[in-house]
Amino acid sequence: MAPDTLKTRSVVAREKRPVQDRLTPTVLSRGNVLGLETFSCRLKSTFVFSVVLMSFICTADGAKILFIPSLEYSHCNYMRGLAEELVRRGHSVTMYLCKEMDYRDCPGPNIDVITYKWTEYKTNMPFKKQMNKDIFEGQWKRLFDHMEIIKHFFCQMMENDMESIENLRRRRFDFAVIDGLFFSRCFYLVPYNLTIPYLSMASVIEELDSGQLIAPGLFPSKYSDYTNDMTFVQRVLNTLYFIVPHIAKFSKVPTDTFKLAPGLTSEDLEELYRKSELFLENGDVLMNYPKPVLPNYIQVGGLTTRPAKPLPPDLRTFFDGAKNGAIIVSFGSVFEDDSNVLTPILLSALSRLPQRVLLKASEDKDLGNIKTVTWLPLNDALAHPNTRLVVYHCGNNGHFESIYHGIPLVCLPIIADQFQIAKRVEHFKMGVKIDIRKLTAQILVDAIKKVLDDPAYTQRAKNFSRIFHSRRKTPAERAADAVEDVIQFGGQHLRSQHAPKNWFLLLHLDVWVFIFLVLQLIFVSIVWCTRRLLRQWLPDSSTSTFTIFMYISALLSAWVYLYL
C-alpha cells in the first residue's frame, strides 16, 4: 500500500485514541502526582502499542515482489538498486537466480533468493569463449547465431527445474520484475504460469516490440552509432535499424515442449512482453536525445549509482599513492579476453603512462604502474579523488557511474547498445571513442592523453554529475514509485489502447502510401489532360517533349511540397 495510505491510517488511529491519552501534562498537573504517573504509563504503553501496530501494518501492506534477472552480474546489479529501495519501503523482495552462476555480491542482504538449476551451464563454457572471440573479431553472423542459441538456453533454464517453480508458487507473489532482454522472452513464462502481473526492466527497451512510438528521422536507434543530426542516408539506415530486428526476431523458440505454458507460440511470448504493465529502461535523457514516449515507459538510468563504500586496503593504498592520478580500465562482467588479443595491447599502452592503472583482468598481479585485479568495484574506485579517467566498453552501468562521479571516458564499445552510448559520450564531449577492432597501443595512448590533457572533458563530466545529483529523487526512488503505482492501480491506464502492433502502421506507412497514390493519380491526370489538350491545340507538334516536361514539373512540385 502507498505511504500516503499508511499515513492516513495513522492519523485516524491518533484521532480515535481516548481523550485522556491525548491530555497534556499541563492539564494533568492540576490533579495529583498519581495522575501524572498514570499519564506517563499510559503514554509509554500507547507508544509501544503504536510502534507494534505500525510495524504490523507495514508488513501486512508490503507486496511480495519477484525479480528475475538475466545470467550476468551486471543485470542482477542494476535490478538490485530497485530491489533494495523496495525493501526499504517495507516490501518483500525475492530474486530468482541461476544456481551455477557467480553473481558476486548480488543481490545482497535483506533480499531473499530462490535458485534454479542449469546443469548444462558448465558444458557451455566453450561456447561462451567462442562468443567472446566472435565479439572481438566482429563476426556478426556467427554472433547472431549465438544469440539464437542463448534464446534456447534461457527457455531450457526456465523449464528444467520445475521444483523451483513450485517453490515460487508457494510464496504467492503479488508482482514480478522481469529482465526484458530480447533473448530472454521465456522469462515471461514464469509470471504467466504464476498468474501475476509484471513489468519489464532492461538497459534497452525495444520500441516496436513494446508498443512505443518511434521517430527514426529524429532519434537514433540504440544499435546505431548516429547522433540525432543525421543525413538522408543515415535516416534510411536508422529506420532499418528499428525495423529489421523487429521483423527478423531471430529464430523461433520450440514451444511444443513448454511445461509452464502448453500451447503458447513464439508470437505469444512477444505478446507477453508487450503486455507488461510498465517498461523501466536503465537510460536517462541527461546524456541522450529527446524522444516521444508513452506513459508506461519510464527512464530510470543510474540504478547502480550510490555513495561509494570504502575500498579494500590494497586498492586504497594503490589509489592513495597515485601522485599523477589513476586510470581505471575495465570491460565489465560479460566480455573476457579469452583469446588473449586485447590484453597485450592494453599492457603495452598502459605501461607508457605516468599514471597508475587499475586493470580488470583474469588474475591479480602488480606490473609496475599497472595493477590487475579479477574483481573491480567500479563505483567505489571511481569515487576516489585521484581517479582521473576510465577506459571502458561503455556498458550502461559503468557509464552512469562515471556520470555520477564526474569522470571522463575513453570508450571501446564491443556489442549492442554500447556503440550508441559511446557515440553519445563523444557527441556530448564527455570523452572519446575508439574502434576496438582497429586498436593499437599508440592509438590508445593518444586517446588517453587527449582526454587527460584537455580539461574541457573533465569539466563536462563534472557538469553532468552536478545535474545528476541535483534531482530530487534517485533513479531507484523513481523506479520504486512507479512499481508501487502499478501494484496498486495497475498499468492499463498508462498504455495506449489503440497502439498498432504492425510496424507498417506504427510508421504510418499506409497513410504515406495512400497520399503518394493520390498525388500520383493527380499527376497522371494532369499529364493525360495536358497531352489531350496539346494534341488538340498543336496537332503537328510532338508531344513527347511536353510529356517529359510535365513529368519533371510534377516531380519538382512534389519535391517542393515535401521538403519546403
From TrEMBL:
Gene3D superfamilies documented for this protein: Glycogen Phosphorylase B
GO MF term list: glucuronosyltransferase activity
Presence of the UniProt keyword Transmembrane in the record: yes
Keyword Membrane: yes
Protein name: UGT
Organism of this sequence: Acanthosepion pharaonis (Pharaoh cuttlefish)
EC number of the protein: 2.4.1.17
Keywords: Glycosyltransferase, Membrane, Transferase, Transmembrane, Transmembrane helix
Family: Belongs to the UDP-glycosyltransferase family.
Transmembrane regions listed in the UniProt entry: 503-529, 541-562
Lineage: Eukaryota, Metazoa, Spiralia, Lophotrochozoa, Mollusca
